[in-house]
Amino acid sequence: MDHLRHLLLSSLLVVSLTGCTGRLIREGAGVATGASGVVIELIKPADLESYRGLQIDPLTVAAHLDTPDDLPQLIREAYIAEPLDELKIGAAETPALRVTGEIIHYEAGDLVDQAIGPLSEVIIRTQLFDASTHEKLGEANLIGRSKATTTSGRRNLAEGAGKALRKWLAQRGIEEQQKEED
């Protein structure tokens, strides 16, 4: 019986240490990389390589969804910054893409999440339109997600959503800027 108890306690110790180690690794990576951006395409746009401009409309929040008041503006700012900093696309160039979005899910995480590993995320139903013809080109759920306490704030989640928009545009033909090496 003592042997069985020792085996059980040893197994629990290994599992708990592995979980803690995994969490430490996630937290460390979170400091370096921030929240992640995930793209789930609903309507796949055709090749977007001919577009040179990007217009971002103010974002809305789904009815009855409780979010921080500044979250739509934080996401809009990230939607502007990420693509313009990383892709060959400008704010005033033509032809332009127009981006609209509605925040359909927001989860800040709670104390239970902190104990077993946090999960914070924001999901924005995002649509792409041709700015001049108003033709709908595509639609996706863009997700800013954090699995680390260090990246779970709403500003980090907004930046993750901005990364998702950048990824989506790059996947559909908007070229990445060449980075100059030091």
Give the SSE layout:
Blueprint: H1 2-33, E1 36-43, E2 53-56, E3 60-61, H2 71-86, E4 96-107, H3 111-116, E5 120-130, E6 136-146, H4 154-171
Parallel strand pairs: 2-4, 3-4
Antiparallel strand pairs: 1-6, 4-5, 5-6
Helix pairs in contact: 2-4
Give the gist of this structure:
The protein has 182 residues and is of the alpha/beta class.
Rg to the nearest angstrom? 20 Å
Measured between the Cα atoms of the first and last residue, the distance is 64 Å
Give the uncertain stretches in residue-range form.
7-33
Helix and strand sequence: HEEEHEHEEH
Beta-strand segment tally: 6
Strand content: 25-35%
Describe the largest sheet.
6 strands, mixed
**Estimated helix fraction:** 25-40%
Mean pLDDT metric: 82
